[in-house]
């Protein structure tokens, strides 16, 4: 089965090399003051950076090389080239978005990795692939943008707001990962009694999530987003789904909404600043107007009944500066959602329906594995057909690699 046939037929607006020119001609990438034009994209492709080492691909074979020590720029370039011209927009997610996989002044690699390897009592390594790459001066966002520009491909960064993967518990103790930052560790219930995390039972992953009612949590995340907005990205996606847990149980939904709407406004303001020419691959270009409009997208749960507890109000988000809404089950391809209701709430906003690599993960087998039921071509096309009939403007692909 060639799943990339689905990409070619899922509603691509135009070949990727032509899209920036089309967008400029119609004014969609024009002045900041013009927010009235709808986002032109039809197919979105989310590149989860961690797949570049962990998934089978022309450049990586985990079974033959399960513990790669080096992350290479070529992995990003080849992953972009693999779908360039088949989708309208590529998004790159730099890890869990707690530790910058770009050149950061807020939390430099030279601060993070010595701290982390000291924490696990391996000051001299061996370092993991991401540590080696970053300590050598790596910058995944720059490499991604350069690769996209070489193919004429619009490029977004997808930023996970509260992802707490890899923090597993062994005999009551948290096992750490270099993908998690000093801020989380030092402000978690694992270390101190303050309520920075939403619980202390780390066997339950929601308890590991940070409490967004605490201003310091939001400030840390916003500081990283502001750095990303200095790059010459075409837009930014805020991923509310990884993981969908932000506020304490029984917190006030109205207060949660006010917090999140204010955060959206702050992100919108950061996007409205012109990018730093020094961070533009190949240097500034007259063709890429520094004051062009840059899009803000949100990836949100597909059912409205969970939005309030997460502080999500799509009409308020749109009013605060959101241009695109990515409706997502979070992990599975499904035909069930509140897409028609969501369309009625934000009738003029570009809405995308997400499909993924699997329709289900089966029960654990005796050998400990949990096989995926892979989404078939027919299921991809059915999901897309239903979504378009329910008012979607396009399709988003997540974990497709």
Feature tags:
single chain; 401 residues; alpha/beta; TIM Barrel; 8-stranded parallel β-barrel; two-stranded antiparallel sheet; 12 strands; 14% strand; globular
Overall description:
With 401 residues, the protein is α/β, with parallel strands linked by helices. The chain has a single domain (4-66, 74-100, 141-162, 207-398), classed as Aldolase class I (TIM Barrel), CATH 3.20.20.70. Helices cover 32% and strands 14% of the residues. It has 14 helices and twelve strands. Strand 8 (324-328), helix 13 and strand 9 (350-356) form a beta-alpha-beta unit. Helix 4 packs parallel to helix 7 and helix 10 packs parallel to helix 11. The longest helix has 20 residues, at 253-272. 43% of the residues are buried. The model is unreliable at 12-33 (pLDDT under 50).
List strands and helices in order, with pairings.
Elements: H1 4-9, H2 19-26, E1 43-48, H3 51-54, H4 73-83, E2 89-93, H5 109-119, H6 129-135, H7 140-150, E3 155-160, E4 169-170, E5 173-174, H8 182-186, H9 205-208, H10 215-229, E6 235-239, H11 253-272, E7 295-301, H12 314-320, E8 324-328, H13 339-345, E9 350-356, E10 358-361, E11 372-374, H14 377-389, E12 394-398
Parallel strand pairs: 1-2, 1-12, 2-3, 3-6, 6-7, 7-8, 8-9, 9-12
Antiparallel strand pairs: 4-5, 10-11
């Amino acid at each position: 089965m060639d799943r990339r046939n689905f990409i070619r037929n899922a509603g691509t607006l135009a070949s990727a090399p032509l899209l920036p020119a089309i967008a400029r001609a119609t004014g969609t990438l024009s002045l900041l003051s013009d927010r009235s034009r709808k986002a032109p994209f039809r197919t979105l492709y989310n590149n989860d950076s961690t797949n570049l080492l962990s998934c089978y691909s022309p450049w990586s074979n985990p079974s033959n090389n399960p513990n790669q020590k080096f992350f290479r720029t070529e992995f990003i370039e080849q992953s972009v080239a693999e779908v360039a011209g088949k989708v309208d927009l590529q998004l790159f997610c730099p890890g869990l978005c707690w530790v910058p996989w770009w050149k950061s002044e807020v939390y430099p690699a030279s601060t993070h990795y010595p701290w982390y390897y000291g924490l696990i009592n391996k000051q001299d390594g061996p370092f993991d692939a991401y540590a080696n790459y970053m300590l050598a001066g790596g910058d995944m966002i720059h490499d991604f943008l350069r690769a996209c520009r070489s193919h004429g491909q619009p490029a977004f960064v997808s930023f996970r707001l509260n992802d707490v993967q890899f923090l597993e518990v062994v005999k009551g103790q948290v096992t750490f990962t270099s993908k998690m930052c000093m801020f989380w560790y030092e402000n978690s219930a694992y270390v101190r009694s303050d309520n920075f995390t939403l619980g202390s039972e780390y066997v339950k992953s929601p308890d590991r999530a940070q409490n967004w009612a605490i201003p310091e949590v939001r400030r840390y995340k916003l500081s990283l987003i502001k750095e990303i907005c200095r790059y010459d990205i075409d837009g930014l996606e805020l991923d509310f789904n990884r993981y969908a847990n932000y506020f304490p149980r029984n917190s006030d939904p109205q207060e949660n909404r006010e917090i999140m709407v204010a955060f959206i406004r702050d992100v919108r303001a950061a996007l409205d600043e012109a990018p730093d020419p020094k961070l533009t691959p190949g240097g500034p270009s007259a063709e890429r107007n520094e004051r062009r409009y840059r899009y803000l997208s949100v990836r949100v749960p597909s059912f409205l009944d969970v939005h309030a507890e997460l502080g999500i109000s799509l009409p308020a988000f749109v009013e605060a500066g959101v241009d695109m809404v990515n409706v997502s089950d979070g992990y599975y391809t499904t035909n069930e959602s509140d897409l028609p209701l969501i369309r009625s709430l934000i009738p003029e906003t570009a809405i995308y329906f997400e499909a993924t690599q699997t329709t289900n993960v089966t029960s654990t087998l005796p050998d400990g594995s949990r096989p995926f039921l892979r989404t078939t071509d027919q299921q991809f096309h059915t999901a897309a057909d239903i979504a378009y009939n329910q008012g979607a403007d396009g399709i988003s692909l997540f974990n497709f690699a």
